[in-house]
Design goal:
The protein is 82% helix and 0% strand. It has 241 residues and is mostly helical. It has one domain. The longest helix is centred in the N-terminal third of the chain and has 31 residues.
């Protein structure tokens, strides 16, 4: 039940991000800077070593999980540019402001959060250490998902009470995703591809989404330092998990 318990932490992370977006945005940039470092650290210090270990164990060519990594990176890039999933680009498309667009975008984020929960569950199918590291990454970036859910709803002129309801949906989604993995398991060869795919997803979210947002309004040495601290934090965590 550890995946379910840790996915419960994503619930509170998402809610916190949304509440901060509603109440106070003073520390958002610095939090996002730290989050980007955490995601980079998970990929470099946990997922990539585990991919190398699983490749040796299963005999799968190393290039296959790397193809999965590139596919994930490009897939989320295409999704973001096509359906305008993240708030970072909303100012470029102001003419599309409409409550239904906000709801659709928030639901898309909830679907994304559901897959985050699936990622936690599948990480534990690989191993406890991988599962915990993936959970830390998801907990960290779900803060920004909660923030983006609220901002998307309010940007598209939805009422605050509706934004709160969508925030709750987004917060519950990863818990349901993690719970769904109790119903199935993947063979080792598929788990290696999952690791590559999830690594690509985290790289894209960290480098192409969260980090640019972190420096969009308050680019400072403090934010940069927190990004480095996030990566160092994950290096330390992965040494003891």
């Amino acid at each position: 039940m550890l995946p379910i318990l840790l996915s419960g932490a994503t619930f509170f992370s998402t809610l916190t991000g949304g509440i901060v977006a509603l109440k106070n945005q003073r520390w958002l940039n610095r939090i996002m800077g730290f989050t980007a470092g955490v995601l980079l650290g998970v990929v470099a210090f946990d997922l990539m070593p585990e991919i190398a270990s699983q490749v040796t164990k299963t005999g799968i060519p190393f290039v296959r999980p790397m193809i999965a990594l590139v596919v994930a990176f490009l897939l989320f890039h295409i999704m973001e540019k096509t359906i305008l999933l993240h708030h970072a680009h909303e100012t470029e498309y102001g003419e599309h402001t409409h409550p239904k667009v906000g709801v659709a975008s928030a639901l898309a984020l909830s679907g994304h959060s559901f897959l985050d929960g699936v990622g936690i569950g599948l990480g534990f199918q690989v191993g406890t250490g991988v599962g915990i590291a993936v959970a830390i990454a998801v907990i960290a970036h779900d803060f920004t998902d909660g923030m983006n859910t609220v901002i998307l709803m309010l940007t598209h002129k939805n009422q605050v009470k509706h934004a709160r309801w969508m925030l709750l949906v987004d917060a519950l989604a990863p818990v349901l995703g993690a719970a769904s993995t109790l119903l199935f398991s993947l063979p080792d060869k598929w788990l290696v591809l999952y690791l590559g795919f999830f690594a690509g997803f985290l790289l894209y979210i960290g480098a192409s989404d969260i980090l640019p947002q972190a420096h969009s309004k308050d680019s400072s040495r403090v934010t940069i330092g927190l990004t480095v601290l996030g990566a160092v934090f994950m290096f330390v965590v992965t040494r003891f998990v």
